[in-house]
């Protein structure tokens, strides 16, 4: 047990503290790291401010710059589409709204011991897009690094991929640790494209990794990219050895992430606002459902109806299913029943059970056609007993409810006769 | 027909004339009632608090509650020793609530050793707050807390009730999310202080040091309030745990009713071997008598199995009644709703007997009962008093019956009632200096906040240790600071409940589709308890180890039902690494220091229950394990006319006996310390008795043994002499196979040693 042996040696070094007066030192500018020259040679610019040093890399792109399927300038078209659109949507960007595409690289996954070592910002200027990457010179120079990001000053809308639950809280953590020297961090609006991607491509894309979305949807494939999980090791090595060549690859990785955020926004907007109908029925059904959840019934119905009209019934089962609920809510009983019936054969058992339940309810309470109600109730019970797609204890509860319905419908049927 | 219901006093008079019962009662003692001592409400006490207290019929405070309030208001950390049902929670609720009412931004952390206790206390506190009609938010924060309300707790919770494990891995490493808590933290309440001992306590001592470090970062300097059951060293323990000076409130002002203690020893049924009737059966009979007299009783048993056995036995008393709930079991793992139901049943009298493991020993509120039966000695005085404290409603008489098992400690206690009733209780020891535990938490601390190159940590100078962590690759040093620079999340790699680097996970594969982890064990114990073919007892169920994956530290077990147990042999080589203290006597010496221990498992035997015959054996295939720990050792010369062989036998028996008695002095489990005799020790070629901490790095137990070795040996001799067996039995020197004169030899060698060093 060499670890223990070492510990025993260390034990001899363990001293007990003598009381020492505690005086909080005021801020002292940290020393510069020894590798400034090497990092500059690798392509980074040195920045110095009141709190220390950091490194920076800047790249500009004309609006005509092509990234995958899209030119970056199409971002303005997307914003204009939102402007013209009649729907309200949490992902809409106002035409006067300043935006900042945002992505970080960190030394770990969580906790106060995780550092942000790269802040990647892509801003939209008058005549071009500007990428600014700030690199943490070393952990001692963190205040300088955070201060330079200007997040205390500007309050642009942040567009990110999982930034709402990861990057931004991580930034807040770092800010809190430096709160005695830094001005207060602002609390900008967040647009998280991971969330929208999950809504749009549920059951369509298996994994929501940004590189996967790029390949499948945005027509972009990376060449010579380093996988994101290596980033922490690379950074640690760069500050220990002073060699920044591998670190530059992390910067390129971050750059691609940011460029894809722009085209992902463009692509998502197109899917949400205009039916080009190039994607699968699943995608549009998801979008229709999303509008429904956002309390935009008209838009929801419109999208779902289009799916039912443009795709084969086998593909459109779920669209019929969601549409039926919309119709029922609007009091369109006949239409709802038709949609439920169409959905019946093309949805999973879980939804199928709900469809049968809805049909039974509609026939029993709305149309008072008890024979029909009885038919669907029996089918529901059969489905429940034949399949094991729900947990045992829940199944029991369902069976009890369905049996109750059966008895009630049978009673109504008898009294009617 | 006349009613059989009687009071405790009636019953006791009756029992005095019951010759059969009286034979087994070794000792009978009544402690007269003590009246309450009151103090006025403090002048500054907030009217809302007064209102809530008045509503509960409280018009004045007990003296200890008032003392607590005054210390807290004067900014002094303190520890209050409070028996069961003395209103201890007001010792901390009052100052904390007062502070919050004076300044809404104030915050407090309540630490409870378990989740369940925190949840119980929350209900209690919320009732109080409701009666105050004030907007004070208190929450439990643990693994069960819904993610949706976590944010709110972090930002707005005035009182956060949690446990050390959650603090260690869920709160401290994310302290930036708790800014409003740490900036305004006024009080840290540590309830059930006495449970923080040994490895767990040593870990928690570091969690507190990390907590204090973070408070200092945010500019707060909280006051500690600890409450403890009766132990010998509450102040010392609190100070060591919190690294803060404490005042002590030793005297409770709560009234105590008349208590009668009966020391009950089951009759001997096999005189030669000293075998006594099973304590479980005796408890069944005693509980039946109490049940029939209509006396509400709590029965404590040490294991789940015993609880179940007793419940089954006792339920036969009510088998003719339908849906009768008057006898209930209570084990760990009950849901809060079930607990509420039992509590309610006890209060309204529908439950008459509750049989419990020590789960009910801690602060869980079940109200007060009339009688308490302990099935066996719970292991230390503090626990015994906690259990006894469950009996005794304010003014009524209480009856406490202690029924002894046949183990050495139990027999000692039943035959020496003054030990339990009169003497001072054991010490609870922790050892924050344990280098392995310290390094674990130093990593966590470095993760949480960078160390500067002049920083210390708690009371420790750690710069060289930080250097070591840099070499390990988890820290980076800049001109001024040490920074954590690793993807790892150190708190997840450290469990507060164990000192070992690695534990063996025990996996039950009885149901092939439903394999589940049923426990874990430190690697050292695993060598003799989890080798292949071992019979492993888990909560009374027998399992056989089918496969031991030593590399991966996994033991796969299957439930079996066999009539034997296994006993493994471990060859132990002990080397003295470093001698910290030593005292020379005529021809003997006692020393304390670091030792290295090489444990080599050899063979195991299968031994049949009851007859103890050997019915098979096998080889154990586990590589030797090296462990560094602390030890106290006693070296002496081979006495004249003793052969080495004679000495081996005698020392083995002596070790067994000594090992049994250490828990009389130090609050620890019998297995926390190991006593190993060596006829020729490697370091000085002399016969030596080693007493070492069973955990890597040591937890401070053997260091204490160094100081109290003489009384331990004295005690041991006395007990072995007084044991009624002829040649030694499990109650004194361990079971003996031969009819040799082992017992006399053990007494002799112990006397020689005592003579040498006494």
TrEMBL record, chain A:
**Keywords recorded for this protein, A-Z:** Exonuclease, Hydrolase, Nuclease
The answer, when asked if Nuclease is one of the entry's keywords, is yes
Gene3D superfamilies, sorted: Ribonuclease H-like superfamily/Ribonuclease H, Tetratricopeptide repeat domain
InterPro entries with a match to the protein in the record: RNaseH-like_sf, RNaseH_sf, TPR-like_helical_dom_sf, YprB_RNase_H-like_dom
Listed GO molecular functions? exonuclease activity; nucleic acid binding
Q: Where is the YprB ribonuclease H-like domain?
A: 100-267
PANTHER family, from UniProt?
Answer: EXONUCLEASE-LIKE PROTEIN, YPRB RIBONUCLEASE H-LIKE DOMAIN-CONTAINING PROTEIN
Q: What is this protein called?
A: Exonuclease
Q: Which organism is it from?
A: Lysinibacillus halotolerans
Source organism lineage? Bacteria, Bacillati, Bacillota, Bacilli, Bacillales
Automatic annotation (TrEMBL), chain B:
- SUPFAM superfamilies reported for this sequence: P-loop containing nucleoside triphosphate hydrolases
Q: Respond yes or no to whether keyword Cell cycle is given for this record.
A: no
Q: Which UniProt keywords apply?
A: ATP-binding, Helicase, Hydrolase, Nucleotide-binding
Keyword match Magnesium:
no
Q: Which residues form the Helicase ATP-binding domain?
A: 69-249
One Pfam family, short name please?
A: DEAD
Annotated Helicase C-terminal domain residues: 282-457
One GO biological process from the UniProt record?
Answer: nucleotide-excision repair
What GO molecular function terms would the record report? 3'-5' DNA helicase activity; ATP binding; nucleic acid binding
Entry protein name: DEAD/DEAH box helicase
